[in-house]
Amino acid sequence: MDKANCWSAFVQYVVVTFIIFNTTLPQLNVNDFLAGPIVSVLMTMPMVIMIAKNEKKAVPIVLVNAVILGLIIAAIKHFRASLGLIITAIEHFRAL
Fold first, then answer.
1. What is the pLDDT of residue 1?
2. Which helix (H) or strand (E) holds 11?
3. pTM for the whole thing?
4. What is the pLDDT along the chain (96 residues), one digit of tens a residue?
5. Do 51 and 12 touch, CB atoms closer than 8 A?
6. What number of H helices and E strands is found in the chain?
7. Please, is 89 exposed, middle or buried when counting C-beta atoms within 10 Å of its C-beta (0-12, 13-18, 19+)?
8. Burial degree of 56 (CB within 10 A; 0-12, 13-18, 19+)
9. Can you tell me the distance from the alpha carbon of 74 to that of 66, in angstroms, rounded to the nearest whole number?
10. If we measure between CA atoms, which residue out of 12, 5, 21 comes closest to residue 73?
11. Alpha carbons 66 and 17: distance in angstroms, whole number
12. From the CB of residue 66, how many other CB atoms can be counted at a distance below 10 Å?
């Protein structure tokens, strides 16, 4: 892979992170942990189509990578929200 392809993948996952953090999928009735991989795979599809033209063996690797990174991002989103609730509760009890 050349430098431009690496930067493209990096920028894509930075953007995917912002989108996952600001997206819920109530239409699909899925858990927040599944929303991350779904959004990540859907946003990876244009790149997968371009890769499939020249490197068919790389397609499953890219898709698994998208699922794993989407799940990690969704887990960070979930636990960050839980941590925020805990910190708010602690601050509330300190004020009493």
1. 63
2. helix 3-21
3. 0.77
4. 678 877 888 888 889 988 888 887 878 788 878 889 999 999 999 888 988 888 889 899 999 999 999 999 988 888 876 666 666 777 777 776
5. no
6. 3, 0
7. exposed
8. exposed
9. 12
10. 21
11. 11
12. 25
Q: Tokens 């990540």 appear where?
A: 40
Q: Tell me the DSSP string of 17-43.
A: HHHHHT---TTTT--HHHHHHHHHHHH
Query: What pLDDT, on a 0 to 100 scale, did the predictor assign at position 71?
Result: 93
Here the tokens at position 39 are: 């959004």
Report whether 45 contacts 70 (CB < 8 A).
no
- Cα angle 43, 44, 49; round to 5: 125
Amino acid at 9: A
Q: 19 near 39, Cβ under 8 Å?
A: yes
Q: What is the pLDDT of residue 83?
A: 66
Q: What is the pLDDT of residue 3?
A: 84
Tokens of 47: 């790149």
